[in-house]
Amino acid sequence: MLKVIRESAGLTQERFAERLSVDITTVQGWESGRRPLMATSTGTYLGLRHSLLCLGAQPRLLLQLDTALEADRFIGYVLSANPGDATADDHPLATWVITRPFTDLVAWPFSA
């Protein structure tokens, strides 16, 4: 999703990294999933979203980025959780309302 946003703003990875004052390997890691955005602090993520908006990213795409992070969290939970240990208190399906965009993003890796 981040790559789509970057490209929609007409930026190369190099220019994007320069504008965000990060190393190009950081951008490459974010886009490839080697360095998940979920691992960044909330402040870093919000700063990134603000920078993307200032760089010309479409607001609707930024909303998709938020949804993509929710889908990543859910997929990560499913892949790492022991089914016998799940409780309603910590299961991601118990913490938010599932939307169509979320469902589409969760299903995308299985249908691509």
Give a quick set of tags describing it.
112 residues, mainly alpha, 63% helix
How many distinct domains? Answer: 1
Number of helices: 6
Question: Segments where pLDDT lies below 50 for 5+ residues?
Answer: none
End-to-end span in angstroms?
14 Å
Strands, total number: 0
Helical fraction = 55-70%
Average predicted local confidence, pLDDT: 85
What does the overall shape look like?
Answer: elongated
Question: Main sheet, how many strands, which sense, barrel?
Answer: none
Computed Rg? 15 Å
Strand content: under 5%
What is this structure's SSE topology?
Elements (H helix, E strand, L loop, with lengths): L1 H7 L4 H8 L3 H9 L9 H13 L4 H22 L19 H12 L1
Helix pairs in contact: 2-3, 5-6
Describe the structure.
With about 110 residues, the protein is mainly α. The protein has one domain (about 1-110). Helices cover about 65% and strands about 0% of the residues. It has helices at about 1-10, 15-20, 25-30, 40-55, 60-80, 100-110. It is elongated, with a radius of gyration of 15 Å.
